[in-house]
Design goal:
about 375 residues, alpha/beta, ten-stranded mixed sheet, 14 helices, binds iron/sulfur cluster
């Protein structure tokens, strides 16, 4: 019966690259660019129950990676370790991104025992002065000490997991700190650095922090990032950065929405984090290229507490949404990997232009038309 069910599930459900799960929307920090800080009066706080998590569990065997991350700090869910254990038992890779403040010695031991695959650490600077200012409620020195301790313990146990990934948010006010990121990665034992843009603006003022909107300096940003990529290579560090150039709309969403999904702490399924932000009421209007646009509304396809993930995945509204992107994908020979790579400057300028040709925004849902992720940043 188990095997039969498994065959049925595989028929109805594609293999997914990842399922992203918001285990909590709670956070103790107040990063100045985060919707959690700016929309704090109307934030929907909550943590996923173990019961809800187990509902998703039946779909885990269809996914390569379970990423326990949404609009909150994962370690504030008191069932986090049990959740990691459940997903690991199915054989999935498991990862999360944290602000690093919960990494006390006991927690580090627990993560080592559980063999968590990826431990992402959010950074907004490579020194206390910058990081602590931009990520209020976190402490750069404390995070660094915890990472050093993890590095030592991994060495002591000859363990390769968890891999530490540094997730650096690139802002105009912290860009210069980035020059030290490779040295920092080596110091704390990280072999992976990912630099992302601030690409969602919960307040209009934050636009001045976006490097991709800083037209006069865009070449400077790009050259600096390329230089860091070269330095990273020499030092055995993988360095990935999102483009500092606002480009023509991509044919596909770089969030890989045809082979992944997002589930919020209350069990709601959407295509990505931007289509289910835990805020009640109407948000401020978003802006793109100076034009006022409606804020991306929540686009939800079902609740995991009431339906299986495969039922939700195969529902008509969700299929119709994905179909728009499937149509956009037709006519381009390159697959999703190439399109995603194009965002990260892994292919030539010529190829980037090719994959972005002739894909007007008109056919996209509102929330995607207004989304900077479609613009390659
Ligand atoms: S374009 Fe933006 S809103 Fe639309 S699916 Fe992709 S990330 Fe989400």
């Amino acid at each position: 019966m188990g095997l039969f069910n498994s065959i049925l599930r595989k028929r109805d459900f594609p293999s997914l690259d990842w399922i992203q799960i918001e285990v909590t929307s709670l956070c103790g920090a107040s990063c100045f660019y985060c919707p959690h800080t700016i929309y704090k009066d109307r934030w929907r706080h909550g943590s996923m129950s173990l019961e809800t998590f187990k509902h998703i569990g039946s779909a885990f065997e269809m996914a390569k990676l379970i990423f326990l991350q949404g609009w909150g700090e994962p370690f504030l869910n008191e069932k986090l370790f049990e959740m990691i254990e459940i997903a690991k038992k199915v054989g999935c890779k498991v990862g999360l991104t944290t602000n690093g403040m919960a990494l006390d010695p006991e927690t580090i031991d627990h993560l080592l025992d559980l063999k968590l695959d990826i431990l992402g650490i959010s950074l907004a600077g490579t020194k206390s002065e910058t990081h602590n200012h931009l990520r209020a409620g976190t402490d750069f020195e404390r995070i660094t000490q915890s990472l050093m301790e993890l590095k030592e313990k991994k060495a002591g146990k000859n363990a390769s997991l968890p891999e530490v990934h540094l997730a650096y948010i690139m802002l105009k006010s912290n860009f210069e700190d980035l020059r030290e990121i490779i040295n920092y990665a080596k110091r704390v034992g990280s072999k992976d650095v990912v630099c992302s843009n601030l690409n969602f603006f919960p307040s209009h003022q934050l636009r001045k922090e976006a490097i991709f909107l800083d037209e006069p300096k865009k070449n400077y940003y790009y050259e600096t990032l390329e230089g860091l990529k070269g330095k990273a290579k020499e030092n055995g560090v993988n360095f990935f950065f999102y483009s500092p150039f606002l480009a023509a709309p991509m044919p596909l969403c770089p969030e890989n929405i045809l082979r992944s999904c997002y589930i919020s702490h209350d069990g709601l399924v959407s295509s990505c984090v931007f289509t289910n932000m835990p805020i009640s009421g109407k948000a401020e209007p978003g802006h793109i290229e100076g034009k006022k646009e409606g804020f991306p509304r929540s686009i939800l396809y079902g609740n995991i507490n009431h339906q299986s993930l495969s039922e939700i995945w195969n529902s008509d509204p969700y299929k119709s949404f994905r179909h728009i992107f499937e149509v956009r994908q037709k006519g381009i020979k390159e697959d999703i990997a190439l399109v995603i790579d194009a965002v990260g400057f892994q292919v030539s300028e010529k190829q980037k232009i090719d994959v972005r040709n002739d894909h007007p925004l008109g056919s996209l849902p509102d929330q995607c038309r207004n989304c900077y992720r479609m613009r390659g940043v």
